Amino acid sequence: MRNPLRTAMLLVLLLSLAVRFNVMRDGYFITDDFMLQSRAMESPLTWSHVSRVHTGHFEPLGFTVMWLLAHLAPWNWGVAVALLITGMAIAYLLAWRMLVELFGRRWLTLVPFTWLALTPLTLSATTWLSAAILWTPTLAVLAGLTTSTVQHLRTGSARSLVGALAWLVVGLLTFEKILIALPWLLLLGVALRPAREPALTGLRHVVRARWRLWAGFAGTAVVYVIVYLASSARDGASPSLGRPTVSQVWDFTYLSLFRTLIPALLGGPWTWQGVGYGGAMVDSPRWFDWLTLMALVILTVLGLVVRRGLGRQLVAVATYVGCSLAMLAIGRVAFGGSILALEARYLADAVVPIAIALGAALMPYRDEAAPWLPLGTSLGKSLPGRSLHLAVGAVAAAVGMLSIHATNGYATFSTANPYRPFVEQVRASLHSLPADAQIYDTNLPVPIVGPIFEEYDLVSRFVAPALTTEQRASVGHLTQYSKPYFLDTTGRFQSMRVEGTSNVAKFPGVCGWLVEEGQAVVPLQSEAFPWGWAVRVGYLSDRATPARITLGTGSREVQLDKGLGEVFVPLTGGGRTVAITGVAPGASVCIGDVQVGKPALKQ
User: What confidence tens digit (pLDDT) does each residue in 240-299 have?
Assistant: First the structure.
């Protein structure tokens, strides 16, 4: 092997991708994935579409990816997995480049890289599509932005300045959370200064010597905030932000740090708790949380007494995590509660500054002089280098094994998605529909999207990515149906009848209810309470004519065809009668039967 270190890095990379692929291959789309693909079918690929602020997020890059997936590979999990794996590979390679820029090509550089590549902290952020379009490019951008910033701090080159600004722009088009990287990068610059230099002196030097970088960052951030606020106002997204209570902030911070972040630093969590039908949140036993806390305290104290300047890296990391929690508290906690702290993905981006701090604890920065405190120097002289490397390797191996254990535990939930057969059956059933079939629009019969997404829980919105262009032109736009097909709980479209209350009985041979003076009122056998109902009217007409069907407060204009026919309409209303009015003068229309109820299989 001409470059054994590079070979070892690639092996770690392949291992990490194989582990994540093992989690994703048996997973599937969940909730937001379907909504975002459906929404992508409603608009061409325009700035107004991709710049929409969604649940507080401004993610043009992610929405562009989702638009392309929806149009080029709708509901294709294999393509989605390939895209996610590719994105992770790019992010990890950029992270390796960042670590090499900071610490050089050392074998110890593999330790923070391996931790970053295997940590369960990024599991849900990189394996759930709707989260991954945010977090995976954010990880890549953070690594690229850090590399260019460190290069500029060291050399002052124009190329690295342009690179840093370009990475920031890409990051802002990815996720608004990239803004919190700016104060962290400033403190990282201080941490890279000579450790014996006072922190305030280092801060002044970093700002003055590279003022163009910070001015560029500030100007870009100001422009971004203006664009974000304008987009948020356009889309009415301000309700997604809120001020949490002091109690919520306290609980959220405690859970984020002591139940999620600290155990994850050492390979946790030990166990997970399922969320929804394809995700999980941390749920370790308390003994594991306390054990990881004590181990982290010991390792941190050891690092502080042997490594000069490590405290500045820890301050930088603490600042990043603190800003992250503050942003999450404003954007999520007021509405979702402090329990959201157990969603590991919300801290996924922190792995970049944490990996750098871990690297700083183990080795000097490139060209750093005197990195060790006296105790560290004496330990290095008294203990063989092989022993130190074995100790670091043993700890790293233990953390790696815990990480694999946690990943397997998460896969138990992410691969238990029950709706993949339903979606595949929907696609197959759409292809087998008769040419004249009309898809009757209702809420989805299974909780695959859910009412939280309002109109995207409708069949017409859900199936949009799988429809042909001709089908899409009519589905969701019909106001009446003559040959309706409804979606059942198995994912099949079935020829539809209405099951519920019907008209009172009439004598055989009598033409039901004759429309007189343009109207007829049909009594029902039982009262329909106010609700969203399917209403069917069977009729015989001597000519085509408009009409209006009314149930309580709900009514709908329809067109009756000449001859024997039936018409189905969705109505929200209730009562004991169905009225047919607005019939054209001179038209002879007989109402034969009426049903009010829910869609059911036509016998």
Answer: 566 788 889 999 999 999 999 999 999 999 999 999 898 999 999 999 999 999 999 999
- Under 8 Å between Cβ of 496 and 599: yes
Which of 97, 163, 116 has the alpha carbon at shortest distance from 349? 116
- Going by C-alpha positions, the residue among 460, 423, 434, 421 that lies closest to residue 602 is 434
Q: d(Cα 546, Cα 559) in Å, to the nearest integer? A: 4
Residue 18 neighbours by CB under 8 Å, 6+ apart: none
DSSP-derived pairing of the beta strands 438-439 and 484-487? parallel
145 sits in which H/E element: helix 129-155
SS3 439: strand
245 and 338 Cβ atoms separated by less than 8 Å: no
DSSP 307: B
Average pLDDT, the chain: 92
Q: Cα(595)–Cα(537) distance, rounded to whole angstroms?
A: 7
Using DSSP, how many helices (H) and how many strands (E) does the chain show?
23, 13
Residue among 350, 361, 349 at smallest CA distance from 312: 361
CA angle (134 as vertex; 128, 140 as ends), nearest 5: 110
Residue of 201, 512, 171, 550 lying closest to 352 (CA atoms) = 171
Per residue in 59-102, pLDDT (tens digit) is 999 999 999 999 999 999 999 999 999 999 999 999 999 999 99
Please say whether the dihedral angle defined by the alpha carbons of residues 54, 57, 61 and 66, taken in this order, is positive or negative.
negative
| 8-state DSSP, 259 | I
CA count, 13 A, side-chain hemisphere, 95: 34
How far is Cα 460 from Cα 472, in angstroms, rounded to an integer?
9
Round to the nearest angstrom and report the end-to-end CA distance of the chain.
Answer: 71
Structure tokens at 462: 């859900």
The residues near 413 (Cβ < 8 Å, ≥ 6 apart) are 272, 274, 275, 278, 279, 280
Alpha helices in 73-128 (DSSP H): 77-103, 110-118, 123-127
Supply 197's token pair: 């230099």
- Read off the tokens for 130: 């709707």
Length of the chain counted residue by residue: 603
Q: Rounded to an integer, what distance in angstroms lies between the CA atom of residue 570 and that of residue 486?
A: 12
Go through 147-180 and write b for each residue having 16 or more CB atoms within 10 A of its CB, e for each that does not.
bbbbbbbbeeeeebbebbbebbbbbbbbbbbbbb
At 158, give phi and psi (nearest 5°). -65, -35
Q: CB under 8 Å, gap of 24 or more: what pairs does 518-522 form?
A: 518/581, 518/582, 518/583, 518/584, 518/585, 519/579, 519/580, 519/581, 519/582, 519/583, 520/579, 520/580, 520/589, 520/591, 521/577, 521/578, 521/579, 521/580, 522/577, 522/578, 522/579, 522/580, 522/591, 522/594
Can you tell me the distance from the alpha carbon of 135 to that of 146, in angstroms, rounded to the nearest whole number?
16
DSSP 3-state assignment of 502?
strand
Q: Which two tokens stand for residue 262?
A: 């600290």
Asked if pLDDT for residue 408 goes beyond 70, the answer is yes
